[in-house]
Write a structure and sequence with these properties.
Elements: E1 3-4, H1 7-21, E2 29-35, H2 39-42, E3 49-52, E4 58-61, E5 69-71, E6 73-75, E7 79-80, E8 86-95, E9 98-107, E10 111-118
Parallel strand pairs: 1-2, 2-3, 2-10, 6-8
Antiparallel strand pairs: 3-4, 4-5, 7-8, 8-9, 9-10
Length: 142
């Protein structure tokens, strides 16, 4: 699996995947997005960047040639509607400043990758993950 952090790497990955598989979303890569405070200024750096817009929407930017991708999110597990329709991605804290998007990002026909967000401020703008799970004892379950 390839680790991609720059827009040029994503473009090359997609070209090679299209040639090898006929569909760039068939193989899976690892996409690493650096957190930036101003998502629109950060796009020009060449890095894969992410951040919140003025409406608290999480945006992933794959470079200047891609439009910013709005990601519906919630902290914790993803929300799936009836059938396999995804309502919101889950955000899971892996460690200080590092979060995982769950499930993987699959842009049909274009790109498929696992997403990691890094350099996320502490505390994270989208809130902290629950510290621990609640264990239900048999007497609490009806």
């Amino acid at each position: 699996m390839s680790l991609l952090r720059r827009a040029g790497e994503v473009s090359r990955w997609c070209e090679q995947a299209e040639l090898a598989f006929g569909d760039a979303s068939t193989p899976v890569c690892q996409l690493c997005f650096r957190w930036v405070d101003d998502i629109y200024k950060g796009r020009v750096s060449g890095d894969l960047v992410c951040g919140m817009d003025a409406n608290d929407e999480l945006l992933l930017c794959l470079g200047e040639t891609w439009r910013p991708l709005p990601i519906p999110w919630r902290v914790g597990e993803p929300v799936v509607k009836e059938g396999p329709e995804l309502e919101a991605y889950g955000l899971v804290r892996l460690g200080a400043g590092v979060w995982l998007l769950n499930p993987s990002l699959n842009l049909e026909g274009e790109l498929h990758g696992f997403v990691t967000l890094y350099d996320v401020p502490e505390p994270a703008p989208f809130g902290e993950a629950p510290e621990r799970r609640r264990i239900l004892l048999p007497s609490e379950v009806n």
